[in-house]
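Request from the bench team (R.T.):
"We need a structural guess for the complex before ordering more nicotinamide-adenine-dinucleotide. Sequence and SMILES attached. Just send the tokens back."

Command: build protein-nicotinamide-adenine-dinucleotide structure.
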Amino acid sequence: MLKCLRVLPAPVTRSCYRCGSSYVARMRFINHLKEDPGACLKALDSDVEGILNRLGEGGSLVKEESVLITCTEQNRALFCLDVGQLDQGALEEACGAAFVDLRKAFFILRGEEAPLVARGQALLRWHQGNGFCSASGQPTTRNQAGSQRVCQSNGLIYYPKMSPVIITLVSDGRRCLLARQTSFPRGMYSALAGFCDMGETLEETLRREVAEEVGLEVDSVLYSGSQHWPFPQSSFMVACHATVGPDNAQLEVDHAELEDARWFTLEEIRAALKVRTPPRELRDQPPTVWVPPAYAIAHRLIGEWAEDQERRGEGR
Ligand SMILES: NC(=O)c1ccc[n+]([C@@H]2O[C@H](COP(=O)([O-])OP(=O)(O)OC[C@H]3O[C@@H](n4cnc5c(N)ncnc54)[C@H](O)[C@@H]3O)[C@@H](O)[C@H]2O)c1
Ligand SMILES: [Mg+2]
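Reply to R.T.: structure attached below.
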């Protein structure tokens, strides 16, 4: 029987004593920028002026393709620029920066930076893939903020899309279950994940994916959190803990989907969480097990499980 949903924490309301801004004011400011192209353009000019000067002639093209991603606590709008068409070497020199693959960047970025980069990249990619209306075949046009596209011939509005995915860390009370696909980097294991089918509830997806991938029937589910994940085309990850009874923990792994799936002890999980970046190892050495970077919600699930086991251990 599936049961139990953690009560969601109340949204954090922060105030800034210098500018008097608050969470509510910020959210309304962002909404205003989405709806008022003139205000959005003004905010864009003031946010990106410095960097556009450094981009030279390519600057105006880049400005047109920019997307609004959020605003700071001081109500300063932040935009993501698509610089894909510019000379990357020249750009790195002009900005004193270096391009990094997005997956690798998640090992480097800290705090609030990673979701902003993920959001900006996902939004730019969504625009690149939605230039035409799927009903009329005519080009679509975007609004200034980049929060929607419209087909002028039939009025259809397109909004950025995320695919719901359930990610679940299964525990048998003493151990937790991690798996890897052949496409994962060497040694990396993660929690089980799967896309929702049309019409499914999240609980149904969770039960189905665990059954399909490792042949287990879960007893209980506890919601943990959610995140936007930019791969492969923007997923909306919903993360849960699930349990199976110790007598129902025999795995039957679907090797068409997973290269490996196995139970890990607390000791093994502690060691895996300590590996901060993918280890450099020789191919003939057995791989060190490591887990997705801190930003990935899989990491959070695994960390929560370890903390819970430690608390239970202290209580025994
Ligand atoms: N953020 C994290 O911590 C984290 C951790 C693990 C996995 N993930 C993400 O979860 C996603 C789903 O995991 P999975 O690959 O095990 O899923 P999965 O088990 O559902 O298998 C993937 C297959 O599902 C099919 N599919 C059905 N709907 C799809 C859709 N909307 N988009 C793409 N494919 C669809 C495709 O055939 C695809 O090959 C992955 O893309 C991965 O990036 C995120
Ligand atoms: Mg899967």
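Two things stood out. Residues 193-194, 213, 257 surround magnesium ion (ligand 2) (CB under 6 Å). The first strand starts at residue 67 and ends at 71.
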